[in-house]
Design goal:
hpI Integrase, Chain A; mainly alpha; elongated; single chain; 246 residues
């Protein structure tokens, strides 16, 4: 073994450099393991296009009706990131994507729906243990509040004074401007919390045209809480219950 040591010190220092690189890599890997971020060679090769196919499969097996709609959102992501490895799609790159879409004239609501699809792709990948963690995905602020009725402080005061079960209805009406009858007749088949969308079918609105509302922030949180409440009520009593959403 001693005869090998001089050879390691010669040959233009190749072995010394490789040893230093190996130590550096080992240190980085140990750090990733300690933080629960070590992906392994298989996870490092996962492509965004693969996660897109997983999302489409999830939509099919769940019987979701807006499959073409989600494909249009994902296509924007694939056009920008192409077939990049998921590991290389950092928060900084996601912000660059947002900037590019804004330059193309996309509205904040549309960009947020695309980012929501991306988040769903990442969550499915984590569940399937294809990746160990997902990057932070920033969302844009959407100005969807209808003006001319209540200031925000007045809305909060009114909502606080109402019974608890009425508050989700008032919140939905404040952020969307929908009529009470439209809200009370809304059904869960018209709500897609994964895509963060609510749709009114053609023929059910005053104009006769269909309508879509993109959910975000407090409105999205309210819909998620209402869904949990209704599911718990159905488990307890059985059947369907209106309370704003059926």
């Amino acid at each position: 073994m001693d005869s090998l040591l001089p050879q390691r010190a010669t040959v233009s220092g190749i072995f010394t450099v490789k040893e230093a690189e190996a130590k550096k890599l080992l240190k980085r890997r140990l750090g990733e393991i300690a933080l629960g971020r070590f992906t392994g060679p298989k996870a490092e090769k996962v492509l965004l296009s693969e996660l897109a196919e997983d999302l489409f499969t999830d939509y099919r097996i769940r019987g979701r009706r807006n499959q073409e709609n989600v494909k249009s959102k994902v296509n924007h992501l694939l056009a920008y990131f192409r077939h990049d490895r998921v590991k290389t799609i950092t928060t900084d790159r996601i912000k660059a994507y947002i900037a590019r879409r804004q330059e193309a004239g996309a509205a904040a609501a549309q960009i947020n729906r695309e980012l929501a699809a991306f988040k769903r792709m990442l969550n499915l990948a984590v569940q399937a243990e294809k990746i160990t963690h997902a990057p932070y995905v920033p969302m844009l602020t959407e100005n969807i509040v209808r003006t001319g009725f209540f200031e925000y402080e007045e809305f909060l005061a009114l909502r606080e004074a109402l019974p608890t079960f009425v508050r989700p209805v008032v919140t939905f009406g404040y952020y969307t401007g929908w009529r009470v009858a439209e809200i009370l007749n809304l059904q869960w088949r018209q709500v897609d919390l994964n895509a963060a969308e609510v749709r009114l079918d053609p023929g059910t609105t005053e104009s006769g045209e269909g309508r879509v509302i993109y959910l975000d922030g407090e409105l999205l949180n309210t819909m998620e809480q209402q869904r949990d409440f209704v599911l718990a009520l159905q488990r307890e009593r059985g059947g369907n219950h209106p309370l704003g959403i059926r």
